[in-house]
Amino acid sequence: MATLPFFGDQPFWGRRVQALGLGPEPLRRPVTILKLVEAIAALEELNVQHNAEVLGRLVQAEKGVEVAVDFIERQAAINSPSISAFG
């Protein structure tokens, strides 16, 4: 994935894409045809498809929803006032 960050947190995510091996260094303005061609060529050199497949398997193996629900329930139990405190 070639990225061209221009606002907010996009520079951060562009660097994450690069760090994960999913794309080259984020493009900077002004973007020229040469820079774009180099970024696209780098996608093949970086073996992006393989890296994306590996990352995809890792993400699929996570129990993201289950972990999130457990976390929310723990936080709710910690932060909720006890009913006996009112009564």
Model description:
- This protein is mainly α and 87 residues long.
- It has a domain at 10-62.
- The mean pLDDT is 90.
- Helices cover 61% and strands 0% of the residues.
What is the topology?
Elements: H1 10-19, H2 33-45, H3 48-61, H4 64-79
Helix proportion: 55-70%
Number of strands: 0
- Name the helix and strand elements from N-terminus to C-terminus, one letter apiece: HHHH
Mean model confidence by pLDDT: 90
Structural class: mainly alpha
End-to-end gap: 58 Å
What percentage of the residues does DSSP assign to strands (E)?
under 5%
Q: What's the overall geometry?
A: elongated
Q: How many individual helices?
A: 4
Q: Compute the gyration radius: what is it?
A: 21 Å
Biggest pleated sheet = none
Poorly predicted runs of 5 or more residues: none
Short synopsis of the structure:
By secondary structure, the chain is mainly α. It contains 4 helices and no strands.
